[in-house]
TrEMBL record:
Gene from which the chain derives: dagK
This protein's name: Diacylglycerol kinase
Organism for this UniProt entry: Paenibacillus woosongensis
DAGKc domain location: 1-112
GO molecular function list: kinase activity
Coiled coil: none
Amino acid sequence: MLPDVLDRLDLAGIETSCHATTGEGDATREAAEAVRRGYDIIIAAGGDGTLNEVVNGMAGLEHLPPLGIFPMGTTNDFARAMGIPKRWEDYCDLVIENKTRPIDIGKVNGRHFINIAGGGSLTELTYEVPSKLKTMIGQLAYYMKGIEKVASLSPTELIIRADGHGVLEGEFMLFLIANSNSVGGFEKLAPDARIDDGLLDVIAVRKCNLAEFIRLLTMALRGDHFSDPRVVYFKTTRMEVTSPGLVQLNLDGELGGELPGVFEILPSHLRIFA
């Protein structure tokens, strides 16, 4: 599709150049260079992981250009949440017409996320799935890995300090921080999350057995999980999460370091074509 995309933009007077990513961190470096060189538009073609790298190259810099997204990944959670057109022609027209909107982004330990952050054993599955398997069978690869992970789920000791909500302490199966209502293909997991409200939506699941956890997942598909006392939900602008054990962080489906972490919201930090 690339020649057709470039031709459509060129006919509208948008002169483009392309960069094919070659490995981890490449999109971050290239996005930062594009901002430094004063480009008017940056467009990421890929999935949530590619988008995360591009956002990390842009965030915190001055005079940020608007960001476009061609959803070419496995799940494309963020693009789905934003209602980004699947037809490339329609999305090119959005860019040509300069239809943008402001969005918040999250920050933790010097790194940024645009859609989701989290910790706990089940959140590890998105970056443990081999790229070749994702290419071959798409989102089914995550379900296969998820079945494997659920069987070995174990709770983690967490201390959560959130502005306006005091301290939560105990054993949790996982915690998630959502910036939109589409998380891991679950569109009802954080139904009230808004990309431009200046708030992080936090969901934490307290210790439970395997059968109870599977029941909670089923409830989450319907959006009924908030009625369960094991599910903690609140909104905040800043929170700190610590643990006596090793807890890896998931940022937009990619490995994002380890706890402890201080999570913050950067209101209306970027503009995207949507």
